[in-house]
Amino acid sequence: MADRQIWLVEQFARKLAEVAESMVGSAVSAAINASAAIPEELKQETPGALVWQQGFDAGDGCRMVVAAPRASWERIGGEALKAAGVDELDADSVRGTYIEILNQALAGVVSEISGMLDRNVSAVDGKEIPFGAVTKVVEVVINGESVAIYTGIEAPLLALLASGATPPVRPPASANQASHQALSERHELLDGSKTLDLLLDVELPVSVSFGRASVPLKDVLKLTSGSIVELNRGVSDPVELIVNNCVIARGEVVVVEGNYGVRIQQIVSARERLRTLN
Predict the structure, then answer these.
(1) Rounded to 5 degrees, what angle do the CA atoms 97, 100, 102 make?
(2) ∠ CA 88-140-263, rounded to 5°
(3) What value does the mean pLDDT take over residues 25-38?
């Protein structure tokens, strides 16, 4: 199972670098440092360290631990805030920014696990814990300075990955096939019209749907500041990207340089778009 562990940590390192780079605005690298040792202080509760446990709904005990000493999360979160134009850094903002980067990286790991197991897997029960077992060191180089992040993968997740397919070559075959299918459908649409290319520069408003709700008129009249309307979408469910009243993609909400954004996880097929047309 060692190769599966290395594969998963490599995916995490790659996703972490991608997310950090998008927020910092400069090159960020992250890779396993096989020669580095796990500090003794991280084997118990360490003041200032941020230890995150991320669960996956692939099975009981499928969890991953990511531990960052204070210097590491301060560096990563601080550089992201500086890139966003924040000059006065406070610990809570830096900590929150690092957790956001970490969660986005772990969301990318979820898609890799889903591809490996050939079924949908979601991240669940992400939380801070006092300490956790870590076995691998990920060296992150950000703006010329190297910091260390420590990872651990619990046995049930490793066993599940070991029972899956061979680790995919980047990009994963499942994602590659989906991309080819979407591209083929797009070509079919374009080939069917010789004038469609004239419309390609037309700007269209894009909106994001977090869910819908049907509310009786009498309840609408009772709405005041502070009222809560429950939507038909769970916290972990993807949001919908809508153009011209038609769902064209689904994804997750992310933060990019202080603004909300949507990371596309699925492009809706042409046939499904017709079904979701409002």
Answers:
(1) 110
(2) 75
(3) 92
Q: Does residue 65 fall inside a structural domain?
A: yes
Q: Is residue 192 part of a domain?
A: no
Whether residue 78 is found in the same domain as residue 128: yes
pLDDT single digits (tens) 96-120: 999 999 999 998 898 888 888 888 8
Count of alpha carbons within 13 Å of 20, Cβ hemisphere only? 27
Q: What is the rounded distance in angstroms from the CA atom of residue 7 to the CA atom of residue 130?
A: 26
Residue 242 is assigned to a structural domain of this protein = yes
Burial call 180-215: b when 16+ CB within 10 Å, e when fewer: eebeeeeeeeeeeeeeeeeeeeeeeeeeeeeeeeee
Domain contains 183: no
In this structure, the answer to whether residues 128 and 233 fall within a common structural domain is: no
The domain boundary, picked from 135, 162, 189, lies at: 162
Q: What is the CATH number of the domain that holds 100?
A: 3.40.1550.10
164: tokens are 């899956």
| The model's pTM | 0.61
- From CA 8, how far away is CA 110, in angstroms rounded? 10
> Could you give the 3-state DSSP secondary structure of residue 1?
coil
Residues 232 and 121 reside in one and the same domain: no
For residue 98, which of 87, 89, 88 has the smallest C-alpha distance?
89
Q: Reading across the β-sheet that carries 259-267, which strands appear in turn?
A: 206-209, 239-243, 246-256, 259-267
Q: Which structural domain range is residue 122 located in?
A: 2-162
pLDDT tier, 200 (very low <50, low <70, confident <90, very high otherwise): low
Residues above pLDDT 90, as percent of the chain: 31
Total domain count, the chain:
2
